[in-house]
């Protein structure tokens, strides 16, 4: 068995690997960047090594530094987790050449599955069903257009080296093909350094079905059944479950056997996932499921497989890396119950899912479910890495029980001030189409507004805040209205006048003497958390106010400034562009008015909530 392990990753997956390694008596070494000096995975490991500045390319993607850290600390093996260097065959080879054990598949297997066109050709030779398409070397626009016509529209153009939806376009008509091809090639070249593409027939109502496979160094390969990962936003998985809804035993046997053949074709060792696309316009059927790609690593969604099989996949990884045979035969692996996982992200659905960063003053995801996370109350969400806060996994005897358990946990979450997608996840899990099972990858795009959470706290929550404040001394607060007394509460900078409960004390005089300021009320509903600010001095109802201040939604760099002081602007007009977390975010005018102040210029670095621009409504503005 292994005795020491360096984890070449961060966040929740590093913490998850540490948890299993500790149980097995394996010493763990964490690596960390400047931004992660106080991170949970650093605290939980037996030892930690600083490997560089905050940007991933200078730390977690620097293979030489990671190998040097492993050698310096006497680590026996390196576990790459997922993301970063986990599917980098050159890094895997360098680890092996350094005399260390690589906890993952052989470099040759990674390379074989790394390019989509070569992988599909290999799978076709191995008898694995592949989507009809074109995988040829001739990349001329004329040849690609001709092949698209042969395959038939709609069609998908996909980057050969792609992933995560980058370098992929759906084309519905021949007239649109060449423009889409040029756009796809530009994006592929920028993202992957490889502009080559392949063509695939577009599958109507596509469902994303994947199979967990596992191999050892003794030639044995098993599957651990399938997962359904069809709930996706912009080609990124959001909710995953196992087993797949509507999967018959015959179709399961077919697709799992195909996955094992795929793994055998590349002499696979360790944990891997074979991904298929299925036609979801009808019941799942063997002749309507095709190979897409193979992920040669542990997957983000692996906990749902662990839940239904009772297998610790990280333990299996460590045992196989040490040369042990697989702990179970195929006939010893069975499905028990149903599991659903939701990915909780630090992002604000109300702001177009912009990432949300900062300190987690509150971070509580309740009990009764499995929570894999790399955060704790008091930790900071950095702008340098993926914004996933946690994976919340519910396991129960039935799918409906697992769904209800997961919704209940998200409903009771308390996270502040970082915004999350918890309310969005609840809406998706509660949607009748999801509850019925068998949705396709277009679910989120189709439902759109129906899945968006409410903006601002509900009237019931504001009344609860008012009731809480009614029990506290309110400095300088006058209750002088002849009818129902009110207070003004603020949430997200928007003030709302709320009636006090009938039991509140009534007076037509200001409260006398020194009074402490009332503590903020942190209240939670439907997966959203609110800090309802202490009431301002007010004695009667007034219209809610709206601020013209435009603040930085996250730390970043100003890359364009499109207005000047004194300029007249209209509601929705772009004021400036902020670059953060590798994305550009245009900030716009909240209403018609005049630019009163402009505090930044191009190139400035700003922190979250920095005042960038303020808009005066002016004589023609609207508040």
How does this structure look, described?
The protein has 623 residues and is an alpha+beta fold. The chain folds into six domains: 4-103, 3-Layer(aba) Sandwich (Rossmann fold), CATH 3.40.50.20; 122-129 and 206-336, D-amino Acid Aminotransferase, Chain A, domain 1; 132-201, ATP-grasp fold, A domain (Dna Ligase, domain 1, 2-Layer Sandwich), CATH 3.30.1490.20; 344-445, D-amino Acid Aminotransferase, Chain A, domain 1 (2-Layer Sandwich), CATH 3.30.470.20; 459-536, no CATH class; 549-616, OB fold (Dihydrolipoamide Acetyltransferase, E2P) (Beta Barrel). 26% of the residues lie in helices and 30% in strands. It is built from 16 helices and 35 strands. The strands form nine sheets. Strands 14-13-10-11-12-15-22-20 form an eight-stranded antiparallel β-sheet. Strands 3-2-1-4-5 form a five-stranded parallel β-sheet. Strands 6-9-7-8 form a four-stranded antiparallel β-sheet. Strand 26 (521-525) and strand 27 (528-536) form a beta hairpin. Helix 4 packs antiparallel against helix 5 and helix 12 (399-411) packs antiparallel against helix 13. The longest helix is centred in the middle third of the chain and has 17 residues, at 249-265. The chain is globular, with a radius of gyration of 27 Å. Mean pLDDT is 88; it is low at 475-482, 505-514 and 536-546.
